[in-house]
Amino acid sequence: MAHNSETRRRLRTAYVSGLSLEEAATQAKVALSTATRWRSQAKDQGDDWERHRAASLVSGSGKNDLVQDILRQFLIAHQTAMTDLAKAEIPPDERVKLLAQLSDAFNKTMSSLAKTSPMIDRMGIASRTLEIFSGLTKQRFPQHSAAILEIMDTVGPELERLMNHGEND
C-alpha cells in the first residue's frame, strides 16, 4: 500500500514526540515494518529520528517525562523479575543472591535517574535501604528469603505509586 508524505510526517512527529515506534505506526495507520523502514531510510538521508526524539524528550518538561517513563518501565521490569523470582523453584540461598542482584540493579538505576531528576533523590535512599536489607538477609537470615521476596514484591508498585501520586495519597 502506498502512503503519502503526510502519513510519513505524522509517523515521524508522533515518534519524535515520545510514542514508541509501534504506537506511532498504529496511530499513523502503517505497518510496524513500514515505520521501521521509513525511520532507517530517513537516517540514511541524514534525518536521525532517534536523535530528534532524544532532544525532544530532554528539553523542557520532556526531561521529567522521560525520567518518569524510564522509572515506570524499570519498576515494571523489576516487579516482573521479583514475581518470577518468587515463583522460581530455586534454593533459598540462590534466591537471596538473585534478590541482591536485583537490588543492585535497582540502586544503580535510581542513582542514575537521581542525577537527572531531584525528585528521584528520595528514591536513592529507598534503594540504598533495600540494598542493605537484602545484604543483611543474605548474610544473616537466608532461611527467610522466601518471606523477604514476598514482602519486597510489594515494594515496586508502592514506589511507583509514590512517584506518580506523592506520599499523601
Helix content: over 70%
Q: How many DSSP H or I helices?
A: 9
Low-confidence stretches: none
First-residue to last-residue Cα separation: 49 Å
| Largest β sheet strand count, sense and barrel closure | none
Total number of beta strands: 0
* Shape by Cα distribution: elongated
**Total domains:** 2
- Radius of gyration, CA atoms, in whole angstroms: 21 Å
Query: What do the pLDDT scores average to?
Result: 79
Could you explain how this protein is built, in words?
The protein folds into two domains: 5-55; 61-165. The radius of gyration is 21 Å and the shape is elongated. The protein contains nine helices and no strands. It has 169 residues and is mainly alpha-helical. 23% of the residues are buried.
Observed structural traits:
2 domains; 169 residues; mainly alpha
Draw up the topology in text:
Layout: H1 5-16, H2 21-28, H3 32-44, H4 49-58, H5 61-87, H6 92-116, H7 121-140, H8 145-152, H9 155-165
Helix pairs in contact: 1-2, 2-3, 5-6, 5-8, 5-9, 6-7
Q: What is this entry, summarized?
A:
With 169 residues, the chain is mostly helical.
